[in-house]
Amino acid sequence: MQATVSRYDSENFSGAVLTDTGIELPFTVHAIAETPVRLLRVGQRVRIETTGSGAGLAITKVEFATKL
Description:
The protein is an all-beta fold. 0% of the residues lie in helices and 47% in strands.
């Protein structure tokens, strides 16, 4: 799923994204640990992977959104 970065803390590599359905989801350093992402900016489009549903929805991976 794609989302937009709504906040990002470059010191601890955590932040939040706003999904296209309007849900803000936080993420931690673990979501970018296995990706080339090290710096994000507010407003940047990203692709996310999630687990769970409803109140238990959590981000497991944040990657750069790129066109194929």
